[in-house]
Write a structure and sequence with these properties.
CATH topology of the largest domain: Aldehyde Dehydrogenase, Chain A, domain 1
Number of strands: 20
Radius of gyration: 23 Å
Helix content: 40-55%
Structural class: alpha/beta
CATH superfamily of the largest domain: Aldehyde Dehydrogenase, Chain A, domain 1
Strand content: 15-25%
Largest sheet: 7 strands, mixed
Number of domains: 2
């Protein structure tokens, strides 16, 4: 490891090889000032660009990203250990996002009539948006917020996670190569003190964060004190409910993908598997068998499904949660340990007989660990699902769609997926309730989230 200090540089370490692959000096005060000034000046010009022209820029962004897709995927895999097939999928999803908003976004921002004949609502931009983003989807998390905000006429100031600054700077180059004007997309590399200064700077109009509950509380408090709107997409411990009449094989397949994609490092993921007691034995057996078959290894190999965890400290934290759950009486069916040797690997882990008083039920486990919980019936499954401080997404597998709809109305989550695992898509809103945050990304909600819904009323006598 290099002697370069993490106090002065953002350091990127390949979690498979353990080698340092990047060290990026933190911005000076002068560099921060210059970036904020460019974002403000750029906003003054960008807001005057027509919606049609902004859409053309998004199409250029999509084409440029498509041409650079492999470079982005390789960077993602090297920085966080994401299996390369999944990294390529992330980039392709971003290309689709840009094209979808280019086609459909302008209609979402069109003037909206009201019941008053001469009154309408116009969606105006707010200004430079500060985005504090996480490492687990280093391209998708950024673009799913940036693209609609920029289409609406805002400019975007990205403060990315320190371990993915290589991806952050690639994104900065992407916007330049696609021809977007200076200041529309700026990249900061700052410490938490720099984030605080940016939030309190008059040039920043609003703030968005995707990250932990702790980070959300800190950023939300600072934005509130500065009287600036914020959107928070935080943690999750999503329930994945399987009822007795479900297609068990389909539910198992979805649960494995929903739990172990991105090595389990996903906020909206199937973390608490709540299974009706008459089928819990069958589901558990098949789930363990399927999990055991997942290939663990070099993330740059096409058939790898489980890569190393992104950071060594996060693996230690996860192992502490696993050992605590074991001590609390859960039954370990698979894994439960760090993998010795090269790479920051944690064995895919499955717990059974998890109860609401256990760590694996109460806390978010951000890694390849699944907790199987037994429910007496559908009502008990909903009760268990809601017994959480989180409320991001939930899944229900059942053949009874009427019952699923009734359960949906009782679930305290931002999204409910019936006979399908959780996913984000530009066509539908994404976000949570309770300690999973507030505000929405994607769909028309996302494109309007950072706008001023301005009432324009003619001839009011």
């Amino acid at each position: 490891m290099s002697a370069i200090s993490s106090l002065t540089h953002a350091i990127s370490v390949d979690p498979f090889s353990g080698e340092q692959i990047g060290a990026y000096p933190f911005d000076t005060d002068a560099a921060l000032e210059a970036a904020l000034q460019r974002a403000k000046a750029g906003y003054g010009q960008w807001r005057q660009v027509s919606l049609g022209q902004r859409s053309e820029y998004l199409l250029a962004l999509a084409s440029t990203l498509e041409a650079k897709a492999e470079a982005f995927a390789q960077m993602i895999s090297r920085e966080i250990g994401k299996p390369i097939a999944q990294a390529r999928g992330e980039v392709a999803k971003c290309v689709g996002l840009c094209r979808w908003y280019a086609e459909h976004g302008p209609a979402m921002l069109a003037a909206e009539p009201t019941q008053v004949e001469k009154a309408r609502i116009e969606y105006r931009p707010l200004g430079p948006i500060l985005a504090v983003m996480p490492w687990n989807f280093p391209v998708w998390q950024v673009l799913r917020g940036a693209v609609p905000a920029i289409l609406a006429g805002n400019t975007y100031v990205l403060k990315h996670a320190p371990n993915v600054m290589g991806s952050a700077y690639l994104l900065g180059e992407l916007f330049k190569d696609a021809g977007l004007p200076e200041g529309v997309f700026e990249v900061l590399n700052v410490t938490p003190d720099g984030v605080t200064r940016a939030i309190n700077d008059v040039r920043i109009a609003a703030v968005t964060l995707t990250g932990s509950v702790r980070a959300g509380m800190a950023i939300g408090a600072q934005a509130g004190a500065a009287l600036k709107k914020c959107v928070l997409e935080l943690g999750g411990s999503d329930p994945f409910i399987v009822l007795a009449d479900a297609d068990i094989d389909a539910a198992v397949q979805a649960a494995v993908i929903g739990r172990y994609q991105n090595t389990g490092q996903v906020c909206a993921a199937a973390k608490r598997l709540i299974i009706e007691e008459s089928v819990v034995e069958e589901f558990t057996r098949k789930f363990v068998e399927a999990t055991r078959k997942l290939k663990i290894g070099n993330p740059l190999e096409d058939d790898t499904y489980i890569g190393p965890m992104a950071r060594y400290d996060l693996r230690d934290e996860l192992d502490g949660q696993v050992q605590a759950t074991l001590a609390e009486g859960a039954t370990l069916l698979l894994g439960g340990n760090k993998v010795e040797g090269v790479g920051n690997f944690y064995a895919p882990t499955v717990f059974a007989n998890v109860t609401p008083d256990m760590t694996a039920f109460k806390q978010e486990l951000f890694g390849p660990v699944a907790a199987i919980i037994t429910a007496r019936d559908a009502d008990h499954a909903v009760e268990l699902a809601n017994d959480s401080e989180f409320g991001l997404a939930s899944t229900i597998y059942t053949a009874d769609y009427a019952l699923a709809e009734r359960m949906t109305a009782a679930l305290d989550t931002g999204g409910v997926f019936i006979n399908g695992y959780c996913a984000s898509d530009p066509r539908v809103a994404f976000g949570g309730v309770k300690k999973s945050g507030f505000g929405r990304e994607l769909s028309h909600f996302g494109v309007r989230e950072f706008t001023n819904a301005q009432t324009v009323w003619l001839d009011r006598n």
